[in-house]
TrEMBL record:
Keywords: Signal. Residues 191-409 form the DUF7872 domain. The keyword NAD does not apply. It comes from Plenodomus tracheiphilus IPT5. The keyword Secreted does not apply. Residues 1-17 form the signal peptide. InterPro entries: DUF7872 (IPR057194). This is DUF7872 domain-containing protein. The lineage of its organism: Eukaryota, Fungi, Dikarya, Ascomycota, Pezizomycotina. PANTHER family: LYSM DOMAIN-CONTAINING PROTEIN.
Amino acid sequence: MRSHLLFAAVGVTVTVASPVPNPQGTGTGADSCPSDALEPKTWTDLNVDGVLTDAAGNYTKTKTNNIQSLADFFGAPNFFCGLDNFCNAGQPCLPVEVPAWYAVVAIQNWNNYMNCLNTAIGFATSILSLKLPEIVQDLFPDPKDDVTPLATMIQVVNGVLAVVPFTGAVSTASTVVSTGLGFLSGRVKPPAATDRFLAWSDISSSMSEVLKDYQTAVSNSVKAVLDAPIDDPDNGINGILAGGNFLGVSQNFTQDDVQKLVIDSITVSALGLALQAQKAFVVRFFNQERCNDENENTLCIQNDGSSTFTQWSLLKRSGDANAGSLIDESKLLLDKYGLTKLEFLKGPTNCFDNNDKKQLTNPFNQGLPLDSKAECVFNVLVCDIDNGNGGAGKQGIVDFCKENQSLDI
């Protein structure tokens, strides 16, 4: 049986082999060769890790493409994997006998996965290329290109790629995402992009850089695994397949499938980044005697057991020392993007409080979470002013936040 993965972002159809176990064990050919379900339990029950350990001492090691040499040892000399090469394990006992066949199936699935990652990078950068210019138009009409590290986009792409499973359908299940993020950081080693910035005025060029750099990382990873001795501690296929996580059946997915899972998180994060780039900040006023939150950029919550309020306002420096209210921007966050005041006003202060009062905490080094409401996904600078303790005094909000709380505004 063969299935097709339609990759709409780049207009190509990738065909991958989907092996099917034969439980009957009757008849002729593959049907005469009994096999079990393609799942990690089968891998463990049949000790396929042991099969690969034994093979490491008996197959013919080569300078390149040790995986092909391993397959040849198992009886499949025409098994060639790689990017844009879709190696096929065939059916049980045709040509590889069980239990070695399960190892070849898992290698096939690893190869499918790496090819899917390579194309999903295009999905991710395409989604960003479509969404970010809209946010620039709405919130950042005078964009600056030297403020947002390009590494933040790598984290976003990591989050997108995490929904691509080793086998099965794309998913936001925590096991799929955590396994994917662990594999990406440990095996693929995404590009760091530490010395470059996101070009808000030319999103497509930045996304082209991310696409090129990330696909290079995937290509390097695939080549390293193909060429390494199978028991190499760093890149050997035995370590990658250990435990049977790659034993399963691959399923189709499209850019639309991926986009539905990731678009909310990408959008909310990018809204915060666009405001960060303009040095917008939330001021949290403690012990307010009166509070009016009719404006879209302000939230009031009365303190328990007190007549005072805590007030949150989204502001930006306006002139030398004045703070301007971001009412229009807040209206867009509410009406167009569907955020609540709790999310874009109180949310950044929760992130601030829960991370030792550190500004713009980014706990997503491995990848952006898929839950758009997760703490710190939307984030801006925070300034605390206690009106029960003199407030900002004569300094004004901007000067107080700069001088007393070291905000870079």
